[in-house]
Amino acid sequence: MNPHNSRTASLIESFHGRLIVSCQAYPGEPMRNPETMAQVARSAEIGGAAAIRCQGLADISAIKGRVKVPVIGLWKEGEDGVYITPTLRHARACIMAGADIVALDATDRPRPDGLTLRQTARALKDDGAVLMADCGCIEDVDNAVDAGFDIISTTLSGYTGARARTEGPDYELLSQMLERHPDIPVICEGRVHTPDDARRVMDMGAWAVVVGTAITHPMTITSWFSDAVRS
User: One cellular component GO annotation, for this chain's record (predicted)?
Assistant: First the structure.
């Protein structure tokens, strides 16, 4: 067996059937600090997270130095179009910062550096990278699998215009992915706000589930309670 393939399989297996916690803060927020995010990530690890998803080179580096579980890294630049690890340069920088897995926008929208998704994935796989595809629809998923991604995810469902945004997880897309690609690890990410949501996607057959806002974003969590109290 190829040693790289063996390491990749072991890495991905480590969070099979488990919770992945996304530790991210938006620009301008009080918690937008690498050390703060590292503390949040370590707390999530102690609480049972089997992997951490995080964004930005400083956060990736700080978190990698604090946790023992795999780190899924990405780099957001801009707000429109392809902004999740938008170029080959961004992806390689995430790996250099310490990401065990790099997450990329896997839609068919134009990428800033002019490369196609397939060209980007091929270059990264030649580097030995482990890749997670953030998809917005089943066509994105098919393209990502064809391009050689190791993991496929529902992350961008409802954010690209390809599918309507669901109130909770996109169970329909998840079901399509599981049926269409039973041999590829499928991760559910996006609007997983309760333990019941997380349990449901796991019961459907997801490889793992990513929870972010409901665990690591106190501004939003507080607003949920504040709105409920006011109403």
Answer: cytosol
Give me the tens of pLDDT residue by residue for the chain, a chain 231 residues long.
345 688 999 999 999 999 999 999 988 999 999 999 999 999 999 999 999 999 999 999 999 999 999 999 999 998 889 999 999 999 999 999 999 999 999 999 999 999 999 999 999 999 999 999 999 999 999 999 999 999 999 999 999 999 999 999 999 999 999 999 999 999 999 999 999 999 999 999 999 999 999 999 999 999 999 999 998
H or E segment to which residue 152 belongs = strand 151-153
Torsion sign, CA atoms 188, 193, 195, 197: negative
Domains of the chain with bracketed CATH: 3-230 (3.20.20.70)
- Which structure tokens are listed for 24? 């991210």
Q: How many CB atoms lie within 10 A of CB 77?
A: 14
Distance in angstroms (rounded) separating the CA atoms of residues 36 and 4 = 33
109's tokens: 């929208």
